[in-house]
UniProtKB/TrEMBL annotation:
One of its GO terms (molecular function) is ATP binding. Residues 2-51 form the IstB-like ATP-binding domain. It comes from the Bacteria. This is IstB-like ATP-binding domain-containing protein.
Length: 53
């Protein structure tokens, strides 16, 4: 156990997951498993994507 990594990335902040999932039991189960030993990196600032010309 604990021999593999899971990477989750997205644009929805973790604090909004309960409202998005819309089922408190499932949201708690997902968040407990993903965040129990997680390293969270939250980025801020302007997007570095190139603007379409």
């Amino acid at each position: 156990m604990g021999e593999r990594a899971t990477i989750v990335c997205g644009q929805l902040p973790v604090e909004n997951w309960h409202a998005f999932i819309d089922n408190p039991t499932i949201a708690d189960a997902i968040l407990d498993r993903l965040t129990s030993a997680a390293h969270r990196i939250e980025l801020s600032g302007p997007s570095l994507r190139r603007k379409a010309i």
